[in-house]
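Supplementary notes for students who missed Thursday's class. We covered one full example, reproduced here. Read the sequence, then the structure, then the short commentary at the end.
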Amino acid sequence: MPRQVALPPTLAPRLIGRDAAAAYVCLSPHTFDDLVDRKLMPKPRILGDKRRAWDVRELDAAADALPHDGELTASDEGWE
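Structure (token representation):
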């Protein structure tokens, strides 16, 4: 959905749609959906009967919580 015209261009939106949320964390929409299902990315906020949007602050926190390259994850620990 296009940016609201009432929003000043210097003010980023707080809630963004699925495709924008996936792009925000540098993922394809399909991979983003997978990480949401695996609880590595937040679930969307409910904006109405059919509209869903992600809070960029929650996306930031989820991205910060992802492991760095070379770090063990919970799923890796059983393989050593």
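Commentary. Residues 67 and 73 are 7 Å apart (CA to CA). The helical segments are 18-24, 29-37, 56-65. If anything here is unclear, bring it to office hours.
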